[in-house]
Design brief:
The complex is a heterodimer of chains A (110) and B (114).
Chain A lengths: L2 E3 L4 E5 L4 E3 L2 E3 L6 E6 L5 E7 L5 E3 L5 E5 L4 E6 L8 E7 L5 E2 L3 E6 L1
Parallel strand pairs in A: 2-12
Antiparallel strand pairs in A: 1-4, 3-9, 5-6, 5-10, 7-8, 8-9, 10-11, 10-12
Chain B lengths: L3 E4 L2 E4 L5 E7 L5 E7 L5 E7 L6 E2 L6 E5 L5 E5 L8 E8 L9 E2 L3 E5 L1
Parallel strand pairs in B: 2-11
Antiparallel strand pairs in B: 1-3, 3-8, 4-5, 4-9, 5-6, 7-8, 9-10, 9-11
């Protein structure tokens, strides 16, 4: 069975600081991996996705993620966080049905 | 191009009442999904429809039914609402699975069952 773990429930960073959100997955084959962002009261928006090829993928809003098969991880990074990045972030895995992690809430301090 | 739309945005029900949540997409996607979101639990799949004319159970189907009315529309019905069904419900669609499995989400329906 596929599963996703996001070990950090809540992360606080200062504006301009770097960010890394962790995601570990369990999947029986080559994983299809996604990061979504949810602003308060909104639906989910896709930030980036990994299917195959280059293990460093670029997404929207300056985000990137690196797929590490040996660590079963797909961590999300951003070099310099903006106040507008405050939101909840979800990692997901799946080729048909998606399994989502429980999310990481990001707070950005001015 | 509205993407995925959901109605209603908010709903309050009493225990035992029934209601249908509506979802429509205008992206000509084959697959559609219903999720519920509860604090600290991420999104959990209730039902999905891989293609028009098919529906399958997800992780938490008990207490729900679905209808894939046509390629555009996928409704979720609560026959006898319970307080445990208080949640935010999201509909999503995707072109299909595999490399086309990017799912597009609607804005959600916030349901409270008293």
């Amino acid at each position: 069975a596929q599963s996703v773990t996001q070990p950090d429930i809540h992360i606080t960073v200062s504006e301009g600081a770097s960010l890394e959100l962790r995601c570990n997955y369990s999947y029986g084959a080559t994983p299809y991996l996604f990061w979504y962002v949810q602003s308060p009261g909104q639906g989910l928006q896709l930030l980036l996705k990994y299917f195959s090829g280059d293990t460093l993928v670029q997404g929207i809003k300056g985000f990137e993620a690196e797929f590490k098969r040996s660590q079963s991880s797909f961590n999300l990074r951003k070099p310099s966080v903006h106040w507008s990045d405050a939101a909840e972030y979800f990692c997901a895995v799946g080729a048909g049905q998606l399994t989502f992690g429980s999310g990481t809430q990001l707070t950005v301090l001015p | 191009n509205a993407g995925v739309t959901q109605t209603p945005k908010f709903q309050v029900l009493k225990t035992g009442q029934s209601m249908t949540l509506q979802c429509a997409q205008d992206m000509n996607h084959n697959s559609m999904y219903w999720y519920r979101q509860d604090p600290g639990m991420g999104l959990r799949l209730i039902y999905y429809s891989a293609s028009e004319g098919t529906t399958d159970k997800g992780e938490v189907p008990n207490g729900y039914n679905v209808s894939r009315l046509n390629k555009r529309e996928f409704s979720l019905r609560l026959e006898s609402a319970a307080p445990s069904q208080t949640s935010v419900y999201f509909c999503a669609s995707s072109r299909t699975g595999g490399v086309y499995n990017e799912q597009f989400f609607g804005p959600g329906t916030r349901l409270t069952v008293l």
